Every structure is written in structure tokens, then in C-alpha cells.
Amino acid sequence: MSTMAGIQGQVLEVTVVGCQKLKDTEWFSRQDPYVVLEYSGTRHRTRTCTDGGKNAVFQEKFMFTLLEGLRDLKVAVWNSNTLSTDDFIGNATIQLQKVLSQGYDDCTWTLQSKTGRFAGEVRLILHYAGAKKQNYGSAPSAPPYAPQVPQYSAPPAPSPYSSPPYSGPSMYPQVQYSQPQSAYPPASAYPPQPSAYPPPPSTAYPPGPSAYPPGPSAYPPGPSAYPPPPYPPQPSAYYPQGPYPGQYPPPPY
Questions:
Q1: What are the tens digits of pLDDT across the range 106-158?
Q2: Which of 83, 87, 176, 221 is deepest in the core (most CB within 10 A)?
Q3: Where are the domains positioned within the chain?
Q4: How does DSSP assign the chain, residue by residue?
């Protein structure tokens, strides 16, 4: 495991990359932010990012001499004013455990206002050349893969644990399905067998006289309409003849 002992007099390199989402302290114009770093009484200030507003870019590098037992770095962001005191935007405390143990740290830290509210973010890149890397040692490498071709002089014996395929009766009862009985007699086999009964006598045509004489009609027959009455018709007693009796045949013109 790496150790952080013996940092006295070592050099810590800090790069201020920039800020984003800063709290705006100006009412009518864009603010001009800058960053102040402090470690063990040593302070470094970036240039002022004129009209940087809420997102300022710096890309400035600073060196700090480490002190044994002091493993945090303070950062503050201000807004530069010309005619009045600079406005405080927010600050944060950067823990150095990671950079002192691993030698490198690139993180974005949250800034807080005086009331503890969110005031933006600042990105720092930290380098420490005195960090001792952990030596995990070399793990044994796996042997190269070579496919093994089995050599058989005889067929392999069956495994005592593998059961033979089941050939006994079925575990489920066999259901016998009967054919539905038809209402009609089954068709005879081919060729047709001769019938045991004599065939019915064929019907002769024309049919013979009926064995039963027709009975008398229930209604008496009416007067016959044949022969037809003579023409022209005789005068009717119910309908008298008009003034112009018809003649048949008609006289010639």
C-alpha cells in the first residue's frame, strides 16, 4: 500500500482549469471572477477573467511546498470590482489524500456561499511527483492454450451414473378410443355378396286395374254443360234487350 509519509518539503502542482455555474453577483453587467488558492499561509491568485460571468476559464498553474501534517488546500472565488470591494462568490476545501497517495487528481469541487448554499463549481488538476506507486507484483501468466486431443484405444465404457433409456411400459395409461356407432349399416365388402332374400317383384308398366272399385261420389253430379247453348244467345229474362239488337252475322257495308 502506498504511503503519504515524508511529504515535508515536497512540491504540489495545482492547475486551475476554470469555474462554471457561478453565482452572479452583478446586477447590470457581467462579473469578473478570479480564483485564490491558499496552503500553509501561502496564497496564489489567478488573473481576472474579464466578463467571465458564470463560466470562467483560467488554465493557470501554481506550485506549493507541502508541509507534514497539512493535507488540505483552500480555494475561493471572487468577483473583481473597480470602484468597490470585491464580491465573495464561494469557497471550498480540497482534500489532498488522493493526490498524495496516487500522484494525480482531476476533480470538480462544489463552491458554497457564506450561507452554505450552492455557489458554483471549480475544476482543479493536482500533481504530486513524490507519490510511491503500489507494486502489486507480476501475476503468473496462464500457460498457452493447446487443445487436447483424446486418445481412445477402445470405445469408452458407459458411465455408471448414466441411466439407460427407459423401455418399459408407459407411465401414463393407454386410452382406447372406440369408433362411434353409425346409424346406417356398414358398407358391404367388395365384391358384393348375394342376398339371402329373394328380390322384390318388379313393378309392371302400365299398372293393372285397381283391385278396389271406386266408391260413389259424395256429391251428385250437376247438369252437363255439353252441348253448348246456341248462338246468338237467347234474350235473358233478367236483362231486357236494348234498342239496337245485335245481328250475326253483321250486314255488309
A1: 999 999 999 999 999 999 999 999 886 543 444 444 444 455 554 545 555 65
A2: 87
A3: 10-128
A4: -------TT-EEEEEEEEEESPPP--SSS---EEEEEEETTEEEEPPP-TT-TT-EEEEEEEEEE--TT--EEEEEEEE--SSSPPEEEEEEEEE-HHHHHHSEEEEEEEEE-TTS-EEEEEEEEEEETTPPPP---PPPPPPPP-------SSPPPPPTTSPPPP-S--SSPPPPPPPPPPSSPPPPPSSPPPPSSPPPPPPPSSPPPPSSPPPPPSS-------SPPPSSPPPPSSS---SS---SSPPP-
Whether domain 10-128 has CATH 2.60.40.150: yes
pTM for the predicted model, two decimal places:
0.52
| Beta carbons within 10 angstroms of residue 61's beta carbon | 12
